[in-house]
Amino acid sequence: MTEQINYSEQENKLASLGIKAYLITSMLVFSLMMLAGVTMRAAQGTFIEIGADLFYQVMTVHGAGMVGTAGLGGTAVLWYFLRKYINLSSKVLWVNFVIFLIGVVLILGSIFVGKFAGAWTFLYPLPAKSMGVWSVESAAVFMLGLLLIGTGFLILYLDIGIKLIKKYGNLGNALGLPVVFGMKPVDPDHPTTVVAATMVLIVNFIGIAAGAVVLVLCLFNLYQPDYELDPLLIKNLIYFFGHVFINATIYSAVTAVYELLPKYTGRPWKVSKPFYYAWAAASLMVMAVYPHHLLMDFVMPPWLLVIGQILSYCSGIPVLAVTAYGALMIVYRSGIKWDLCSSMLLLSMFGWAGGVIPAIIDATVTVNKVMHNTMWVPGHFHFYLVLGLLPMIIGFCSYLAANSQPSKAGAIGKLAFATYFVGAMGLILTFLASGADSVPRRWAVHLPEWQYLSQLGAIAGSMVLIGFLIFTLQNLARLPKAKIQDVQITDK
User: Does the reported pTM lie above 0.90?
Assistant: First the structure.
């Protein structure tokens, strides 16, 4: 049985304030990043006119902002539930938050003051060769901001890792590897959140460390241009880091599904052999699958590209299968009370499962060679994020806010949900349709025959933003008053 951890009053207060700070910051920044996304689609559709330089600045902040904030929001969900099982430090939670904010200030300054517009991927040698659009100092500040944010997360993961090892002996035990290899029987009381957290810790610690290495190398190259880097190696490190980090956000936030749906249905979510197998497999696959981003880099070792393609077909299956199937089974004929939290959590299963389909299509070489550099790719990852990750975070926020005021599915709430969902599907479909029509991504100006899809995308994106703003305003009004500890679901 899981032992109850007793925290001091001061520790609980710090934890409560920290979770609120993470979530409120995430909701506000997500809103701003959505506005940036709508602005880009509106500019491509000629609804508004902005210069190409500003467009690429907005594109850079949108990409970096969404990825970083997804990490912040997903971490808040994971940390909140994991704290029930291991003795986590609230001070470390705050250290990461402060470092994150400093990194954000540096990134914003580099983009809107220093004019950096090299995208969040900062592919070598673009940051150092801007043709006078931005300075070396601007590129350096951008990379330093990313490096600081990664450092903050590494500190947080270090605390999690130490506490997991202290309680379970090693990370293998926490992940359930003795069960996977037949050395121990299944412990049905082993927390699902601990398994998920261990997987996230392993892959994201390695991923962020790789990102830190490449950032340091690129920073050195900025001031010592004679020290040339291997472009293929740098690209591999960047995409390894980026792919692992963004995937880890949804693996973190899915703990809300494991922890909250049982509260709504009155049915426990027990670990099982398939559950352990799935998370162990995902720990390897999520790190090995990134070469599908490099299928068009023909100088890549063929064996890496083969692995990238094969694992792209397989990587989403293990955890998604046990999670989506488990969610459906735990909800089926349960008499669940539907409110914003439970609705969003189930919607996230649809978003996660649906996002796999265009991803697998793109990972097929014959398709990838004509589709990967098109709007198809934003279509598949917006599917994951807008209908997968964000509903998990919105549902979690609603759950916490319900402690200060019962969550009611009133007319405004239902309208916001419908607006958000319809807008999200419209946005995703316009991206996918644009990709199928070979509309290139990362272009500030679209040809007249492409513009109608951009216009539809801008309208759909505005619907997503409106729905999300309603959720955000509701949570901002209730979250500050919420008592984070011992939140209960109310039947009111």
Answer: yes
